[in-house]
Structures are given as C-alpha cells and as structure tokens.
C-alpha cells in the first residue's frame, strides 16, 4: 500500500501549542486519522518528506506512506506495527521510530523529540 498524503495542518507556526495539544489530548492532533497514526511537527527550517515504513519491513523498499511537511506544520503518519520507521527525505541513516498515538517534534536529522502525554 503506497498512500501519498499531504495531511499537514498549519498550527499558526506555534510549537508551544503543539506541545500543549500533544500533552493534553493526542486525538486533537491526529483527528479522524486511523488509530495506528502518529503526528510529527516539523521544527526544522526546511520542508521534509517523511517516508513511513512498517516496523517489520526489513528492506524498506516500498513505504507505507509519504508525507510532505512544511516548516512549522505537522503531518500525520500511519503504518502497521507497534512502531513505524521514519526516514526523513528517504534517508535511511536518519531513521527514527515513532509509536502510534504519540506526537514528535522533528528538529532536523538526528534530532527528534517525543512529546509525552
């Protein structure tokens, strides 16, 4: 399944509001998306395409999803498994894991911050 979606939503460029919403109620950020979804806020200065792979995908040939997220925006990512593997701009060396129903802030390669609820 190769679903290309651009589900980024403007948060008025307010990272503090993102933190607050993520801590208060993650469903505010995920909205009507599938339960196996997570949200990533792009706090880097550049647009990023997050390639989303199923956790059990050992060779990462076909992403479950690709989400383009502009700076200061959020994107909803979804796949199957306990975790999803994320490759920013399809860079396998910058891989990080996300957990469904959780929020994360991407500050740049190697700088991903989970936001606890």
What's the count of strands? Answer: 10
SSE-based structural type: mainly beta
Count of alpha and pi helical runs: 2
Kindly report how far apart the N and C termini lie: 30 Å
Give start-end ranges of low-pLDDT stretches: 1-12
Question: What is the element string, with H for helices and E for strands?
Answer: EEHHEEEEEEEE
What is the fold-level CATH name, i.e. the topology? Immunoglobulin-like
The major beta sheet can be summarized as: 5 strands, mixed
Count structural domains. Answer: 1
What is the CATH architecture descriptor?
Answer: Sandwich
Please list the strands of the largest sheet in the order they lie side by side.
1-5-4-7-8
Percent of residues in helical segments? Answer: 10-25%
Average pLDDT works out at: 80
Query: What is the general shape?
Result: globular
Question: What would your notes on this structure say?
Answer:
The protein has 117 residues and is mainly β. The protein has one domain: Immunoglobulin-like. The protein contains 2 helices and 10 strands. It has a 5-stranded mixed beta sheet with strand order 1-5-4-7-8, with no helix packed on it.
